[in-house]
Amino acid sequence: MVHTKFCDVFGVDYPIVQGGMQWVGCAELTAAVANAGGLGFLTALTQPTPEALVAEIDRCRELTDKPFGVNLTILPAINPPPYAEYRDAIIESGVRIVETAGANPAEHLPAFREAGVKVLHKCTSVRHAVKAQELGVDGISIDGFECAGHPGEDDIGGLVLIPAAAERISVPLIASGGFADARGLVAALALGADGINMGTRFLATREAPVHDNVKRRLVEATELDTELIFRPLRNTARVARNDVSRKVVRILDEGGQFEDVRELVAGVRGREVLRTGNLDDGVWTAGVVQGLIHDIPTVAELIDRIVIGAKGLIEGKLSEVIGK
Ligand SMILES: Cc1cc2nc3c(=O)[nH]c(=O)nc-3n(C[C@H](O)[C@H](O)[C@H](O)COP(=O)(O)O)c2cc1C
């Protein structure tokens, strides 16, 4: 019904992507997205080992016979996870689609290409998108300043970033950051993208494996309730505003260093927020799009609503504008 070249290249019904989400991108959510016709990604590093990732891929296969992928987020770390082992686990499991993010994927592309794995690379600037296209990725996901997680340091919103990328990108282009509904999908298509990626909106679905308090907070929160942390360290992250995020911003603004906030921003604390629903116990990721989230549907309801709504918008309001 809403079909673009992204659907043809990546083998899915609808151009709607559920991007990688640490502690959230597990089999139930990803399989639900796949079953509803979208492209879901398990999050590799949510699994403690490559072997655990293989088990999670198997679990996802039990829940869907549709295509799904795995997100491999490559971030700078003092003790980096064994990225190559995770990559090989993905390949050996027979997964055919990968979302890379966080850094240049060059090191991993030859292995993926040899195994026939399609790569959707997510980045936050036109120059990185162009670079990834030159390296031979199969699709680009471009994350605007609105996005949850790491928006980069350029601060370019989707309204300019998406068409600027579309002017330079010929492989399928996915618009990311700030999308939640049919209006967003139609706008992304008009801006030159071939589909949308959503994180925060999928966090507020029934199948997301997080505490109901988190989902309810996304419904209650407005577009004003996120925080940009780590700005002075040039490793900006957009998170839900809470006691901890405010404290982190204050410490760094007063000249503190990463060591001074390390304990506050520990990943395990964020994971515990999602598990227990104690919303002020750590930092957890959310985007400004929470201002557009008003309910907690199933994934299938959400995707149907977006697809049917997009068709209605194009045939209705937009056609009326040109007198049809
Ligand atoms: C809870 C949460 C965790 C995330 N973790 C990751 C991650 O591990 N790797 C990644 O590439 N993106 C991650 N993201 C970003 C999403 O994949 C997506 O790019 C982003 O959410 C898009 O912006 P939106 O939230 O406005 O839809 C995360 C987002 C959320 C909400």
Automatic annotation (TrEMBL):
Keyword vocabulary terms for this entry: Dioxygenase, Flavoprotein, FMN, Oxidoreductase
Recorded hits in PANTHER family, A to Z, give: 2-NITROPROPANE DIOXYGENASE, 2-NITROPROPANE DIOXYGENASE-LIKE PROTEIN
- What Gene Ontology molecular-function terms does this entry list? dioxygenase activity; nitronate monooxygenase activity
Q: Does the keyword Oxidoreductase apply?
A: yes
In terms of Pfam families, this protein maps to: NMO (PF03060)
InterPro entries attached to this UniProt entry: Aldolase_TIM (IPR013785), NMO (IPR004136)
The protein's organism comes out as Saccharomonospora viridis (strain ATCC 15386 / DSM 43017 / JCM 3036 / CCUG 5913 / NBRC 12207 / NCIMB 9602 / P101) (Thermoactinomyces viridis)
Name of the molecule in the record: 2-nitropropane dioxygenase-like enzyme
Q: Does the keyword Metal-binding apply?
A: no
